[in-house]
Amino acid sequence: MEKKTIIITDLRTQEARDALSYFAAQGWEAVAVPEDVRLWDEAALSAFAAAHEESLAAVIHPAPPLISCGFEEADEDMFARAGNEGAVAAWCVTKVFGGVFRGKGDGVIIYLNSIHAEKPVGRGFLFSANCAAVQMLQREANQDYGPDGVRTFFVQRGVSPDDPDGRSDVSPLYYGVDLRYASRRMPERGSLNELLAFLTTPGAAPLMGADLRADGGMTMYYGHRRRVEGRDYFERKK
Q1: What does residue 111 show for φ and ψ, rounded to 5 degrees?
Q2: Domain boundaries of the chain, sorted by first residue
Q3: 3-class secondary structure for the chain?
Q4: pTM for the whole thing?
Q5: Alpha-carbon torsion 182, 22, 103, 62, what sign?
Q6: How far apart are alpha carbons 125 and 208 in whole angstroms?
Q7: What is the pLDDT of residue 238?
Q8: CA 211 to CA 136: how far, in whole Å?
Q9: Do residues 198 and 204 lie in contact, with contact meaning Cβ atoms separated by under 8 Å?
Q10: CATH code linked to domain 5-235
């Protein structure tokens, strides 16, 4: 039986590298897009996809790299870079691989993105805006490609130990990051692998088009609770 192929478009993050190793260990043909193939170059990406079309079953597309700058510091070059690496790359990935899967009548695209699709990073508006754009792009892709058997998912992951330090004087998010998780610790390596594997199965079909929070409760956690005179209060642990 021929191996199924899964393509990961960017190995910049540890989560993407872990996913590549995990799927390979599970018997997939796990392939990364070469660094010299620009994801916002539709022609180059199409040529790469054609070489794997026959066995291709799933694609994982991570979030763009963090661009840290304030509004006053941003310029046209930064906007162009952010757009190419963010929304334009995601559009090309969706169009190219969505077209392949539409022809097959089956396939999965997972946007392994960031909580910054809905949570400002502080001095990172270009990054957050592109994450949010990809979130909406996934919803639209579900409408366009879903009827033809293509399943799409948007996964919001939390902050990981190897992520760039996003600390700023605007947002406290990157101070005491481990304490911002309900478990009070950073996620373990490979913690998303089984979720990603599940999303490639037919069992995940009821979730197609969904925005999935896989951030360890980071966006929904507000601090530790203590009892004071019989009432509950929330406090921040420094």
Answers
A1: -95, 100
A2: 5-235
A3: CCCCEEEECCCCCHHHHHHHHHHHHCCCEEEECCCCCCCCCHHHHHHHHHCCCCCEEEEEEECCCCCCECCCCCCHHHHHHHHHHHHHHHHHHHHHHHHHHHHHCCEEEEEEEEHHHCCCCCCEHHHHHHHHHHHHHHHHHHHHHHHHCEEEEEEEECCCCCCCCCCCCCCCCCCCHHHHCCCCCCCCCCCCHHHHHHHCCHHHHHHCCCEEEECCCHHHCCCEEEEECCEEEEECCC
A4: 0.91
A5: positive
A6: 28
A7: 44
A8: 9
A9: yes
A10: 3.40.50.720
Query: What CA–CA distance (Å, rounded) separates 126 from 117?
Result: 11
Q: Which two tokens stand for residue 97?
A: 């691989």
Cα–Cα nearest to 211, from 152, 127, 143, 147 = 152
Q: pLDDT tens across 128-186, in order?
A: 999 999 999 999 999 999 999 999 999 999 999 888 888 888 888 888 888 888 888 89
Encoding tokens for residue 143? 């409408």
Amino acid (one-letter) located at 7: I
